[in-house]
């Protein structure tokens, strides 16, 4: 049986890596949702929907009939999380993968944690609210918390679970995409979990590119 996967925010850099990893898999049927469909350059038979996650009709049309929803969004992500959870409940779709950010639980310790809060502390409030909405739902969710992102052509990553200290200062977008694709292919992985993703062995007070 084929697995129907909806990608919200399909024009984003991480999402593009996920699409690349999945688009030639004959067992996966992709639906790509973006505010601007012209941003999508996909060499596959994926269905493309242009719309707004906060528009009830748009998101309802996209979610209906899917098996897995993967959301990689920016902006008012807390409102978006509420919209997605409500729509998935309405249509009986259970599996959600939702990307947030490192630091939403104050899990980044030491000088790196202080630096991270200075850099993105204001944004973390929205991401934490989004995570709270998802964690308080009945969905089979995985919240993904990537470290600071690079465009390196590498797929190495390690993970930490909620409640564990987050150490790694960076990770490649391609590596995060590899992790997310692995969840989509094995949807029993990291269910009802909030997972930090970083490059192994790269630790310090801030990312090397700052």
TrEMBL record:
UniProt-listed PANTHER family: FLAVIN REDUCTASE (NADPH)
InterPro entries: NAD(P)-bd_dom, NAD(P)-bd_dom_sf, Polyketide_Oxido-like
A Pfam family recorded for this sequence: NAD_binding_10
Name of the protein described by the UniProt record: SDR family oxidoreductase
Highest taxon of source: Bacteria
CDD domains per UniProt: SDR_a6
Domain spans labelled NAD(P)-binding: 9-187
């Amino acid at each position: 049986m084929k697995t129907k996967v909806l990608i919200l925010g399909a024009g984003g850099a991480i999402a593009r890596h996920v699409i690349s990893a999945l688009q030639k898999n004959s067992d996966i049927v992709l639906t790509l949702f973006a505010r601007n469909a012209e941003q999508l350059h996909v060499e596959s038979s994926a269905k493309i929907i242009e719309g707004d996650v906060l528009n009830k009709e748009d998101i309802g049309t996209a979610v209906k009939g899917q098996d897995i929803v993967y959301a990689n969004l920016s902006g008012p992500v807390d409102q978006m999380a509420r919209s997605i959870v409500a729509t998935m409940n309405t249509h009986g779709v259970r599996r959600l993968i939702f990307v947030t950010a490192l630091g939403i639980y104050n899990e980044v310790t030491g000088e790196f944690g202080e630096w991270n809060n200075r850099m993105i502390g204001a944004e973390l409030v929205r991401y934490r609210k989004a995570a709270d909405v998802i964690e308080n739902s009945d969905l089979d969710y995985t919240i993904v918390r990537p470290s600071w992102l690079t465009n390196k052509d590498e797929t190495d990553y390690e993970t930490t679970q909620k409640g564990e200290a987050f150490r790694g200062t960076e990770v490649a977008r391609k590596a995060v995409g590899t992790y997310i694709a692995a969840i989509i292919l094995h949807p029993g992985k990291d269910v009802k979990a909030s997972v930090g993703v970083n490059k192994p062995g790269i630790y310090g007070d801030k990312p090397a590119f700052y």
